[in-house]
Amino acid sequence: MGRVHLETILFVDDDPELREVAAAALAAPGCTILTASDGYEATRILADRWVSFLITDIRMPGINGFELARQARVMRPNIHVIYLSGYPVEGARGSGPVYGAVLKKPLRMGDLLAEVSGRLL
Length: 121
Fold this sequence. Notes:
The protein has helices at residues 16-26, 39-48, 65-75, 109-120; strands at 7-12, 31-36, 53-57, 80-85, 100-104. With 121 residues, the protein is of the alpha/beta class.
């Protein structure tokens, strides 16, 4: 992620261990990494902070990742989105637009870094 500058990434997952590992992997000069444990916490962060990239689990208590992304795009129309899922995605999307790629869990950090770098360059 060498050419990424002044970006804020919000990583949302209900697994605290995954949040910690992903935040460490995504950390780079010029990047701010924020984390949230669910869609409600993420929505509060999005309301208060400028976020350029949302990485969200699809299945979470309360607001799922697709709904969170829809809300995020209302608040931040240019936000980049990546979804994470350990389950089959077909049928889970519901109605409405989907804004980004889906990475399968267990998550390989190299895949996540490549996807983020490719979208932010």
